[in-house]
Write a structure and sequence with these properties.
Transferase(Phosphotransferase), domain 1; 4-stranded antiparallel sheet; alpha+beta; two-stranded antiparallel sheet; about 30% strand
């Protein structure tokens, strides 16, 4: 369940998307942990606030006014130039590169989870299926 509203904090007002999650805290602990550390990359939609309730938890995310990539590619009246396609692909690649640099696997990358901000940049979102991987490096000689 996602709602939109204004968030007043530190003397500022931001328009946010509020994702209301029902269920056990243990079930969404990973999403909360991953979302809350991913705030400082232009191609990642990171969590900017967490509000626990009695029966739910509300996660606040920056509002992306351009909608999701699904909406853009399904609009029959919208022509997407090859240059714009390349720009979108590079944004997605940069976001995924950043996640992988932190050993985070998204595991649900799809057009619905790619949001467009007011500048036209893509942000990767929805870390509900994501996992942090501890890599074991192996090396063979010979």
């Amino acid at each position: 369940d996602v709602r939109f509203g204004e968030w007043y904090h530190d003397g500022n007002v931001d328009i946010v998307a509020a994702k209301v999650v029902f269920g056990e805290l243990n079930e969404i602990r990973t999403e909360i942990a991953i979302s809350s550390v991913l705030r400082h990359h232009p191609n990642i939609v990171g969590c900017c606030g967490i509000f626990p309730g009695v029966e739910n938890i509300t996660l606040l995310f920056p509002f992306y006014s351009g909608g999701c990539l699904t909406q853009i590619i399904s609009d029959k009246n919208l022509h997407i130039s090859p240059a714009r396609c390349l720009s979108l692909a590079l944004d997605i690649a940069e976001g995924m590169k950043y996640l992988h640099s932190l050993n985070i696997l998204h595991r649900d990358l799809k057009c619905d989870n790619l949001l467009i901000d007011y500048l036209g940049r893509v942000g990767v979102c929805d870390f509900g299926l994501s996992r942090v991987v501890v890599s074991k490096m192996t090396m063979s000689v010979g």
